[in-house]
Prior knowledge:
Strand content: under 5%
Low-confidence stretches: 245-251
Radius of gyration: 23 Å
Helix content: over 70%
Oligomer: single chain
Amino acid sequence: MNQVHQPLFSHLVELRRCILRAFVAILLVFLILVYFANDIYTLLAEPLLRQLPEGGTMIATGVATPFLTPMKLTLIVSFFLAIPYILYQVWAFIAAGLYKNEKRLIAPLVFSSALLFYAGAAFAYFVVFPLAFGFFTKMAPTGVTIATDIASYLDFVLGLFIAFGIAFEIPIVTIIICWTGMMTPKALASKRPYVIVIVFVVGMLLTPPDIISQTLLAIPMWLLFEVGLFFARFYVRIPKEESGVQLNDRY
């Protein structure tokens, strides 16, 4: 009985250790950044501030908002910066239960997914935000003064960061579809016209209602699909009897 329960208990202890390490990493990054909380918020607000009319400013409508909003942003930034270490902890926990060939296949996916998420967030900040805020400020009715609340702005841009970060995971999704055997790369390539329509629909939903912003998101998503399709050829699942995978491949 103990021989059955001991491995489960050991896994739970190891899981708790990994979670604690991840929390400690986030806390350490937060303590380093908290002194610069207001500067970090100013950097985040820069794309909107550049588009405001001369003399325009942002406002805080809550009593504690000027303090809590930069703190909230700093905590989120700490999490984003700690993601590589968090993924390393996740990987250290699950790797023990994988075969050698599975480790070789999954490790690049885990860490490239983090890089793609960062790329999506950077694309949103440097390309989409200037276009989106330029559009919104120009479309303001006559006599309306634009004074965005800092908490509302933070929620808005965080939503876009997450949306674009997930959208840039297309290569990972494409590879997983082929690796799990749901579709072959050739079959997936035959769906290309549908994929193009879908990425333009997604671009329409995630960007301001103008064709330029929509195209700026749709084309990178399509190219990411093609990148995923290219690498999916190396992730096609091979039947075990052909690959010669044995149980003793674990270590």
